[in-house]
Amino acid sequence: MSYVPHTEHERRDMLAAIGVDRMEDLFADVPAQFRFPELKLPAGLAEPDLLRELHAQAARNFPVDPARSFLGAGVYHHFRPATVDYVLSRGEFYTSYTQYQPEVSQGMLQALFEYQSMICRLTGMEVSSASHYNGATAMAEAVLLALNAASGKRSKVVISPAVHPAYREVLKTYLRGMPAAVVAGDEDGTADATRLKSLIDRDTAALVIQNPNFFGQWEPAAELAEAIHRAGGLFIVVADPISLGLFRPPGAYGADVVAAEGQSLGIPPSFGGPHLGIFATRMAHVRRLSGHLVGETVDADGRRGYVLTLATREQHIRRAKATSNICTNSALCALGAAAYLATMGTRGLRQVAELCYQKSHYAAAEIGRLKGFAINPQAPARPFFKEFVVRLPAPVAAINAHLREQHGIIGGYDLGGEYPHLKDHMLIAVTELNTRTGIDQLVTALRKAAT
Amino acid sequence: MRDEIATVYELSVPGRAGIDLPASDVPATDLPADDVRADCGLPELSQLDVVRHYLALSQRNFGVDSGFYPLGSCTMKFNPKVSEAIASIPGFSATHPLQPAETVQGNLALMFELQQWLAEIGGFAGVSLQPCAGAHGEFAGLLMMRAYHRERGDFKRTRVLIPDSAHGTNPASTTMAGFTAVEVPSNGRGNIDLEAVRAACNDTLAGIMMTNPNTLGLFEERIGEVVELVRDCGGLVYGDGANMNAVVGVVRPGDLGFDVMHFNLHKTFATPHGGGGPGSGPVGVSARLKDFLPGPVVEMAHDSHGPRYRLAMPAKSIGRVSPFLGNFGMFVRAYAYIRQHGAAGLRANSEHAVLNANYLRVRLHDTFTVPFERVNMHEFVCRGAIEGTEVRALDVSKRLLDYGFHPPTNYFPLIVPEALMIEPTETETKPTLDAFVEAMKAIAKEAHTDPALVRAAPYRTPVRRLDEVKAARELVLSDRTKIAAD
After folding, report:
1. What does the angle CA A57 – CA A59 – CA A64 come to, to the nearest 5 degrees?
2. pLDDT at position A311, please?
């Protein structure tokens, strides 16, 4: 066996040094009746056999071609420049722990500091955490921050039904430990800005929207910001980081906290994780922020260096009174996102966003021409970014099965499950990786599927 | 090596580009002009700038691949390179979590088997892979405990017992789950104080959070009685699985009566720590908590073609703690690790982790006092301050950096003043352990001959000791270099 490096000779010497005869003697404190159970697991495999078996396992999945996949709904196929994997594969980074010994962690600390810097500018905010688990938990932590900022005097959270359904579920799980907290607004999937505004009162700690929303469309964010600020609550915006390469950031229209999924920034879909929770806010809330935070300082010789800072917020210092229980988060994904953003630069990210915009609009226009199909019927006048809703002349599952089996295309997300009024409606995502040929094939396949 | 490294913003030159993207191949649509921003404020670098920058940064970072990393309670063992290669197979990494089940049978089968294997390893009736980290698993576990009591109409149970040696995440998660953390002292043998547990057991007790082996690296000698006391008064037993690397194939927490435990795939199952994540913290539960698991979980049924896998929500689930299926990329690595080793290999790994830790203890205990000394599990705690000098545990840690070693965890657990918590793991060789012992002894000697040298260490690192007070006072949390956008 290669994982444990000991030779028989070394093992004997070490046992002798400890003063025991056999390995088993080290476990005398374990209750005898439960000691050394026979685990029913398959026998071990040598490395070549392991690789063969796992390649075969992966091959049991339908092979995804990003040019011909139109499934998004929070996880996207985007281009990943080769620099990202180059950076992520450095063992000095990926086999390290959280930076509690800053003298030998300057590389990761500076990379995270730069990540925070880029996220602040991208979102238009003043401070970014070093990372959260994913977009959904970042949003839940943003709500906890808002409740905390209200010092227990406000208990209501108004959330738009056009926030990602799974994010709303995670939020409700997170609030199970706070029975006083009430979530309002998403009971009815059709609630609009007027309805949300009517729910905001002096007991409201936060208003949460997604922009562009789950359906890919822009919300009237400025008027919503004004409404929640007038009531004294915080405005939490779930953003798409790719859209921020081209469009006005939440910081420009009044967001107090921006929570976002960073997967689009160079991280593979990987069946839903690991991803990256982006969390950015204003300096006024820095002491309520959850998660690690990197700050600049100097060393004993006066040279610039970086450390984890404001640790007094965190669990290992504050224990039961910490702002959050977060310890391990998603640092390596933040590093990947930083490498992505540094490679893309201002112009590259803008170009990605423009390509998403142009290609999705082309796809929408072409599909809209098909008999029996309609684009964004729930809100036709609203502009959209890279996703749009399509009303189909047949059930989504049947159309998707046809697309896949006859054309090798992965179709869009079935909205009917989460939004009963959108039965037979599909959410289609188009990114820079979808070619015109792939889009044209989708349009043709949809036409055939409907007849 | 010791020069400051310019930030990406300092390297930025307007007009530089790191990437070429194809021109649009579709007819143009007008942009909504009012919503377009002038500039998103990212730096502009060439691709070679980017590569050199991150290469230089990596050279200022220390990982398991760089050298010995005996960080207690963190299990910094070798991360197999084959697991990385497997996780990046496009058949896994390009799959989307919302694809129909029939298109991802390979992924779902892998998740199902991992659930089964973790249940077998831990002695549990069910497992959910949803949580993204150990603390996330704790939170999920505590919410299940809460839901269990409430479903029985038992609303009085608001207190959770936590030993004073516990990780800080335990009380923090307890608060998040709406409970009150009650600290329980340890006794002179490094076990939890049984009488204190007995005194705290009443009908307001929701449960206890036990780390076993505990953070002193000691197996709780009276664990059976602790579990019995808590269960007899209607409480549940939570296991913090951070120290599971000591006991895989040695004992199953479920057999000891634990109701719920999180596994740290990034510790016990060798998925990389990533500089602070991503990790993965699956939770295993006893039969009475199985219906409360966070979901979805993977189920298997047989049809005419063989086994079919699908996602399902447990009957009384606390809900989702992750938006999709948890950190799947980590499942692939942990699956590969378990599959590679099998039952015999997993047990051997734990045994050698314990062998290495005991070997280090007996080689060091004459120089560094071990306050609770008996045969330990995968780690042990000694006093890091050198008696008769002003050299403290922190100084010893910093001086170790000059000798090329990552320091142990310091100042934890809180019950040992000047603690150094040392966890060598099973993948280190005897020569490496011996070299570490020699370094520790050399530092102890230096503490007497030249204490000032030790107290100002390190000297050979990219930076020297950093001013943490200045960092917290001035709060420079992002690069303020002016770029074209400003």
Report:
1. 130
2. 87
